[in-house]
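task queued by scheduler; priority normal; single chain, no ligands, no partner chains; default sampling; output format set to structure tokens
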Amino acid sequence: MRIAILSRNPKLHSIRRLRYEAGQLNMECQVIDPLACQLVIRGKESKIVLKNRALPDFDAILPRIGASITDYGLCVVRHFEMRKIPTMNGSRAIAESRDKMRSLQVLTEAGLLVPATVLTRNTQSLKTAVEAVQGLPAVLKILRGTQGVGVMLVHSPVSLGSVLDTLRTLDQDVIIQQFIVEGAGRDYRAFVVGERVVAAMMRTAPQGEFRSNIHRGGSAQVIQLSKKFEQTAVRAAKTLGLQIAGVDLMESRDGPLIIEVNSSPGFEGIEKATGINVARSIVQHMKTTIQKTRKPRKT
């Protein structure tokens, strides 16, 4: 079996782990830089060129595309899809999960619980927006931020208007979101592979911080998610069309609340916290998918 990982940096922990586990399962694994790919369409023909050579067909593709190259990276993923190559996370699923407002729209439409949220460019109607998210303090998030970057907590109408004006001059659209008091400083990361949660951890923010991301200094500990939380995480990933996903959830008075769904989640922290071989679960899922989709050879 031959698989490819789309990533700009083969030295990343997640990529090294995936390549190792692929080798353990006797699978050939190539890491491809999406920005190094040339996409060719000519008549009914489509191909992907890398270093002046057309890439061969792979049995499956795993996109690990950073937010900084989302648009180009999605074009590369779409080209593989055009060639009917199984892709663990498709281009549409990645695009919808990357846009915070769009992902919330999709999840809400499916009946899943998310924080009260407002997208607005009208700084003259902030009172209405604040009322819609249950008052201040409120959380501000830029639409395509990752790892807690671009997430702010504002406590007053003045600071809210000031931050919105500043971000607007930087051409950044922002959502205003309900601050969940009962879950402040703590959330749960469920790592979904296929249709099950393979690992889960609770993340706790450091003192004086409300963001619990590991990259922001948060700590992690292994937990056993309740059945309801696991079902919510799997349903969220499935709703967005993701086979591999990190689903962030929070406790609320109304039940599990989906904060975010990540289409390219890191797993160094969750492997260390839980001792679970997440990389093996991902590669094994790819192998199973290949076996299910591969056409039987004619004898």
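post-processing summary
- The mean pLDDT is 91.
- The chain has nine helices and 15 strands.
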